[in-house]
Amino acid sequence: xxxxxxxSTEEIVKRYRIDVMQMARYLSWxxxxxxxxxxDTYQNEGMQHTIPFPVYDSTLLSFVRExxxxxxxxxxxxxxxxxxxxxxxxxxxAFIARAELAQMGDLAGILSKYVLEGNIRxxxxxxxxxxxxxxxxxxxxKEIIEFWGKEPKGHGYAG
Length: 159
Hints:
Elements: H1 9-23, H2 27-32, E1 39-42, E2 53-56, H3 58-68, H4 77-83, H5 89-98, H6 104-120, H7 123-130, H8 133-148
Antiparallel strand pairs: 1-2
Helix pairs in contact: 1-8, 4-6, 5-8, 6-7, 6-8
């Protein structure tokens, strides 16, 4: 699937549909947890000389694990950010709001940034949920797939 040329609407929709719709089941959770804590810090009284570490919501961890198994992962997400001049959550939201079918790979790059950087620095996962960028990017991808993925009705279309 890596050599699939994304030069037609059908090819782009086909490339992203299954993964986006699979991940879309997390949309309601991402939306509802924007204001809720998704991580807690574990500290044990008997462990005074250890560093406290975060404990993440199980749904967030499931989202991350499932995302890593999809074709949406873009390890070159830094290029997406530099090419589109994305510097902060405000830039990300503005880009997401105007994204169209041709930017599906860039939207996946935004999600990839949060998931992959979160593997190194866990606070990034929390940030992505709380600033609603992860919700917005996935939601926009779903909207685009649903809009462009509609099958024509009538006119002898046999699919």
